[in-house]
Amino acid sequence: MALTREQIAKRVAMELQDGYYVNLGIGIPTLVANYVPKGIEVMLQSENGLLGMGPYPSAENVDADMINAGKETVTAATGAAIFNSAESFAMIRGGHVDLTVLGAFEVDQNGNIASWMIPNKLVKGMGGAMDLVAGAKNIICTMTHANKHGESKLLDKCNLPLTGVGCINKVITDLALLEIKDGAFHLLECAPGVTIDEIKAKTAGNLVISDKVKTMSFE
């Protein structure tokens, strides 16, 4: 059974490590803030100038001026800092972000990502993604394994305009967790109820099946 957006975010949160500085992209990645594991401390950074982003607010503590890069209302964790976007991008470009989590339209077997433009469709622009893919030490991509037409989004070569080249380390989809290395998607985990054959059928790029493929857990 395919994972929900929340389940994908929970699995991504398991990749967080104590002391990490983390940037969460728009879409599924923003949900990761709600599932930071107990017992570890991470600082979530937003391009618009917030370091120490907390989970989404409850209805009674919404502050319309406290937003993330996707203009969603958020909370500030204890010890958070607020600054201008120039300083925020200096952190990103200076290599001070340990992990970035991004959404994507396509990812290919060489770690290339297309996440910002579909030709002939209205788009808001690149945003901070170009800086994030160049400056982060580690990048995880979250996405559905196939598009609404059932076509694979894990390709041998991206068809859409690229955001970054050779930068994606792992992909967590609604079907699987895969590591990208040596020109291939290496299957490490299957979502509960999802078969390897289903993942094979929906992966257009080079797929390597690990000897120890596990069923995905969220704890």
Automatic annotation (TrEMBL):
Keyword Membrane: no
Domain of life from the UniProt record: Bacteria
Coiled coil ranges: none
Keyword list, A-Z: Transferase
Pfam families: CoA_trans
SMART domains assigned: CoA_trans
Entry similarity comment: Belongs to the 3-oxoacid CoA-transferase subunit B family.
Record-given protein name: 3-oxoacid CoA-transferase subunit B
Organism listed in the record: Pseudoalteromonas issachenkonii
